[in-house]
């Protein structure tokens, strides 16, 4: 206790919106690098079929996980941020005290629900019993993720993004070390056991193919178990950080603060805020579950009604092992789609950091009043988010083929992955903007709107995906088009509602210059790749790096000449004043 009080005596200056976003973005960059080091070798260990099993489990777990990692922290962060702006430090402490047991209880319920419904999902919905072991291995992660969410939301509301960023890196590191090691060991173990005794982990498969699928099921479960261990280590880090480093609130600040609201009142308010935020977060991750369920089912139906059309479209792209076992083709193709999704999700993960950092910043501007300050905060979040996500999304679209080959190798399935990634690259522009928009709607008090709009968007996604995925010649592309339609609708509806809810005029032209420069970036990168791949050795990596560098130069030059960077944006950067003076000297801002 004394250590905690001592840690709180040194008051820590809150991070600005951009500082917080930079901390989260830096942490996210490290997480994504670790994630690449995890998933790229994992694909080589367990193949497309194993990755399909891994992602069936992950997408079933995703909606509940999102409550813990996105929904709950947002609710806590909003309450803490609002009380912080009013100097109600005792209320802040009580919010944490009230939320911890509540969210741990929800974590226990979530873990129990996943354990209970996993067999039913595998039997009645996905139709793949091999996904059961990975799903059960993920269930305990929900409990620890809910515990970690309390600390993350608490520090985010205090405008200290560092604990969240570090805990995410800790989580990713544990997932890499434990999950990848477990997958490798289990594949080797299962293969050797079958060769020696005809069994796989004491189970006797009916054929060599069934033995391989069973081995991949346990290997995918081992990889997933790394995710569970990551959530445990993340929670332990946050708990130790709070215990020994405190939160920066000094005893003097507590003494001068008004008396806190009652626990029942805070609990009720927390529930009122959490419910719509959690439902919105849940709906966001339902997109993955929709793809996992609907895509495999529709491909399975196509294999029964028009197998020649489907196989003709993917001729030469599906290995003979899966052609000999037609029932495995839907999971194989879904595994290919999830590999494209892994790359696509890099873009919205960047703006997720902006959304998290925007919430306390815009909440404070809204709480204290002042239309000009609120408008400035909203426009800054929108502009900076688009500056980062637009070139990344269009770059993925332009370079889908070489990116796929560099990450996953030149294999038979590469064209399947790159075809999906091309469309998902377009979708990532809208997807990436939806998180900051939803955070700002929540910040101005309209917690219900993100949920309602997202529900409508999910209905649209289901309708489009169900229709297009059933066409054998489209299949995976149909799911990508469904995602594109879903998030385009969501972005424009969120933007329109934010203008009305905030009572300020914001023009879509705030995205104009970043979009124009990003189009030039994508076109120049594609052209550069074609030229470089003709002059350099027949590899892919060097032409790809050259194309990325060319696109980046064209993008930055376009921003400077079109005035796409505001002076206020530069001031938020490290040494931003010097950069601004240099650019002013050349009349570029």
> Which bin fits the share of residues in helices?
over 70%
Number of strands: 0
* Biggest sheet statistics: none
Spans with pLDDT under 50 lasting ≥5 residues? 1-10
Query: What count of helical segments does DSSP give?
Result: 22
How would you describe what is shown here?
- The chain has helices spanning 2-9, 17-85, 89-126, 132-138, 141-157, 162-197, 208-245, 251-255, 263-305, 307-313, 320-323, 329-344, 346-368, 371-398, 400-408, 414-443, 448-469, 476-502, 512-535, 541-562, 567-571, 576-585.
- By secondary structure, it is an all-alpha fold.
- It is globular, with a radius of gyration of 24 Å.
- The chain has one domain (17-506).
- α2 (17-85) crosses α9 (263-305), α3 (89-126) packs antiparallel against α5 (141-157) and α3 packs parallel to α9.
Short description:
This protein is mainly alpha-helical. The protein contains 22 helices and no strands.
Give the helix/strand layout.
Layout: H1 2-9, H2 17-85, H3 89-126, H4 132-138, H5 141-157, H6 162-197, H7 208-245, H8 251-255, H9 263-305, H10 307-313, H11 320-323, H12 329-344, H13 346-368, H14 371-398, H15 400-408, H16 414-443, H17 448-469, H18 476-502, H19 512-535, H20 541-562, H21 567-571, H22 576-585
Helix pairs in contact: 1-7, 2-3, 2-4, 2-5, 2-6, 2-7, 2-9, 2-12, 2-13, 3-5, 3-9, 4-7, 5-7, 6-7, 9-10, 9-12, 9-17, 12-16, 13-14, 13-16, 14-16, 14-19, 15-16, 16-18, 17-18, 19-20
């Amino acid at each position: 206790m004394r250590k905690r009080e001592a840690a709180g005596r040194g008051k820590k200056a809150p991070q600005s919106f951009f500082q917080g976003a930079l901390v989260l973005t830096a942490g996210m960059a490290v997480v994504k690098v670790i994630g690449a080091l995890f998933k790229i070798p994992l694909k080589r260990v367990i193949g497309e079929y194993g990755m399909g099993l891994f992602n069936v489990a992950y997408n079933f777990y995703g909606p509940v996980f999102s409550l813990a990692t996105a929904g709950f922290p947002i609710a806590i962060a909003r309450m803490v941020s609002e009380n912080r702006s009013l100097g109600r430090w005792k209320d802040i402490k009580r919010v944490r005290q009230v939320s911890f047991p509540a969210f741990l209880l929800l974590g226990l319920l979530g873990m129990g629900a996943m354990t209970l419904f996993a067999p039913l999902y595998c039997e009645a919905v996905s139709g793949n019993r091999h996904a059961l072991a990975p799903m059960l291995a993920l269930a305990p992660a929900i409990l620890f993720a809910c515990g970690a969410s309390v600390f993350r939301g608490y520090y985010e509301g205090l405008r200290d993004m560092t604990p969240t960023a570090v805990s995410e890196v800790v989580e990713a590191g544990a997932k890499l070390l434990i999950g990848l090691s477990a997958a490798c060991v289990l594949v080797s173990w299962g293969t050797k056991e079958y060769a020696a005794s005809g069994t796989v982990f004491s189970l006797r498969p009916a054929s060599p193919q069934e033995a391989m699928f069973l081995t991949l099921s346990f290997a995918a479960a081992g990889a997933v178990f790394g995710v569970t261990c990551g959530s445990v280590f993340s929670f332990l880090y946050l708990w130790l950080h709070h215990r020994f480093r405190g939160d920066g609130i000094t005893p003097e600040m507590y003494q001068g603060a008004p008396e806190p609201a009652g626990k029942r009142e805070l609990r009720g308010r927390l529930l009122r805020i959490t419910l719509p935020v959690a439902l919105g977060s849940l709906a966001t991750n339902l997109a993955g579950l929709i793809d996992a369920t609907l895509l495999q089912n529709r491909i399975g139906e196509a294999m029964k009604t028009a197998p020649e059309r489907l196989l003709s479209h993917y001729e030469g792209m599906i290995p003979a092992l899966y052609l000999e076992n037609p029932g495995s083709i839907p999971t194989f193709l879904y595994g290919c789609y999830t590999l494209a999704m892994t790359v696509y999700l890099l873009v919205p993960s960047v703006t997720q950091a902006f959304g998290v950092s925007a919430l306390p910043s815009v909440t404070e501007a809204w709480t204290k009043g002042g239309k000009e300050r609120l408008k400035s905060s909203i426009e800054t979040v929108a502009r900076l988010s688009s500056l980062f996500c637009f070139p990344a999304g269009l770059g993925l679209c332009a370079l889908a083929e070489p990116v796929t080959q560099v990450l996953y190798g030149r294999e038979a399935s590469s064209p399947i992955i790159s075809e999906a990634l091309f469309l998902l690259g377009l979708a990532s522009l809208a997807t990436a903007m939806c998180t900051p928009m939803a955070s700002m709607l929540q910040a101005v008090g309209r917690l219900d709107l993100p949920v309602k709009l997202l529900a409508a968007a999910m209905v649209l996604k289901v309708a489009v995906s169900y229709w297009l995925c059933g066409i054998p010649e489209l299949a995976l592309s149909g799911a990508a088009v469904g995602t594109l339609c879903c998030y385009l609708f969501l972005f424009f509806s969120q933007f329109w509602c934010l203008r009305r809810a905030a009572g300020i005029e914001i023009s879509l032209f705030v995205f104009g210059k970043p979009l124009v420069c990003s189009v030039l970036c994508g076109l120049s990168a594609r052209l550069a790749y074609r030229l470089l791949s003709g002059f350099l050795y027949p590899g892919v990596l060097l032409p790809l790096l050259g194309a990325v560098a060319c696109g980046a130069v064209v993008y930055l030059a376009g921003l400077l000449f079109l005035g796409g960077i505001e002076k206020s944006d530069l001031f938020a950067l490290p040494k931003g004043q010097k950069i601004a003076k240099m650019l002013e000297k050349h009349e570029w801002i």
